[in-house]
């Protein structure tokens, strides 16, 4: 076990930080929360101090056993490997694990990076165009997720146990709501989200429950 | 073992297909190559036949043991878990594994999805603007990769053994060259790429070696 408490560098509304917060809460890992304000003064993530932790200038970063880790998928996989005995977030069967990672990646690489703040800002200076951009990519991504859920979901995204895929789904749906994506046709997503929202780990990890929430 | 030969749905120039081709070549897995032309007639990936294999309309897809898998990271992780004894592409230490997945994700989620064809096309109808867009995101991503390599690389991206990170690096550098990204400051990337390019698995997986190469 690590000597000191791990540290999560997070921003309350960052969906990638949120995924890791859910995984940490599911596994009941105690950690120190360090807020990195993504908007104030042009963004604390771009300051030199934080750049030594993550040169990409993004959250989350996870300080663990004296080492820094970045990228939410890499951090969740690390948590799963390190805290093997507390609440598995990947199934034991390799095919099922692949199904979980597929859904994660439809969100993690296929949706979130394109709709995020920095990309939206680079795309256009016009707010209406930015919103249309993000809405378009989120809707496309969630259609992909819904198609996979139609095949593989149980009570949760893959089967009846909470996995990394559920950790990725909840923040993406929050973004969908922020950008007024019509959710009416996403029956499986809506069903699973309604279920996850009641779970204590998901309540604890919600942006509004974070110390830097506004 | 699977009864029949696995099938890879691929496009010669698709960087995500290319990653999987490298992993398959490293592990010496025999497979059937099915070309999906991403450009001809508006893109074969959008046709109904392919949409049943991958509703997202993207390559690669991997047919294995009667099941379809998508998302290059999920497929590479599956290959690593299934073909455990042939050429590991993840280190055994969890911290080192996290370092590999970090580099993968800087490319897989932080770079490639933003610079890819469909996003570039949605951003602008002007070719010069499209090129500037892709160049900008590739350069940003490779700066992130270079910073990580500065810390963790050996002969390859993480240590002296080829990993998934190397499978992701090569196609991204190919894209960088396509978009005339200046590579002169990426000393570690250049060094590692020069080394990988001579490796037989990387030669076999190169776009120009594929049956649908143009």
TrEMBL record, chains A, B:
It is found in: Cytoplasm. Signal peptide: none annotated. It catalyses: 4-maleylacetoacetate = 4-fumarylacetoacetate; RX + glutathione = an S-substituted glutathione + a halide anion + H(+). InterPro entries: Glutathione-S-Trfase_C-like (IPR010987), Glutathione-S-Trfase_C_sf (IPR036282), Glutathione_S-Trfase (IPR040079), Glutathione_S-Trfase_N (IPR004045), GST_C (IPR004046), GST_Zeta (IPR005955), GST_Zeta_C (IPR034330), GST_Zeta_N (IPR034333). It comes from the Eukaryota. CDD domains: GST_C_Zeta, GST_N_Zeta. Residues 4-87 form the GST N-terminal domain. GO terms for biological process: glutathione metabolic process; L-phenylalanine catabolic process; L-tyrosine catabolic process. Its cofactor is glutathione. Residues 93-214 form the GST C-terminal domain. Its main location: cytoplasm. GO terms for cellular component: mitochondrion. Keywords: Cytoplasm, Isomerase, Phenylalanine catabolism, Transferase, Tyrosine catabolism. One of its GO terms (molecular function) is glutathione transferase activity. Pathway: Amino-acid degradation; L-phenylalanine degradation; acetoacetate and fumarate from L-phenylalanine: step 5/6. NCBIfam families: maiA. Belongs to the GST superfamily. Zeta family. This is Glutathione S-transferase zeta. It comes from Paracyclopina nana.
């Amino acid at each position: 076990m690590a000597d000191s408490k791990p540290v999560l560098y997070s921003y309350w509304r960052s969906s990638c930080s949120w995924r890791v917060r859910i995984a940490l809460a599911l596994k009941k890992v105690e950690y120190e929360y360090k807020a990195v304000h993504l908007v104030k003064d042009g963004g604390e993530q771009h300051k030199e101090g934080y750049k030594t932790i993550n040169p990409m200038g993004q959250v989350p970063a996870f300080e663990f056993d004296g080492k820094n880790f970045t990228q939410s998928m890499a951090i969740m996989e690390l948590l799963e490997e390190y805290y093997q005995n507390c609440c598995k977030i990947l199934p034991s069967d390799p095919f099922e694990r692949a199904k979980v990672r597929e859904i994660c990646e439809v969100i993690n690489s296929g949706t979130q990076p394109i709709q995020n703040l920095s990309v939206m800002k680079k795309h256009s200076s016009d707010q209406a165009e930015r919103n249309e951009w993000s809405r378009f990519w989120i809707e496309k991504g969630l259609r992909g997720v819904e198609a996979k859920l139609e095949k593989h979901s149980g009570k949760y995204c893959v089967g009846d146990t909470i996995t990394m895929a559920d950790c990725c789904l909840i923040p993406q749906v929050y973004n969908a709501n922020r950008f007024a994506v019509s959710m009416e046709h996403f029956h499986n997503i809506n069903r699973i989200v309604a279920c996850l929202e009641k779970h204590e780990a998901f309540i604890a990890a919600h942006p509004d429950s974070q110390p830097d929430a506004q």
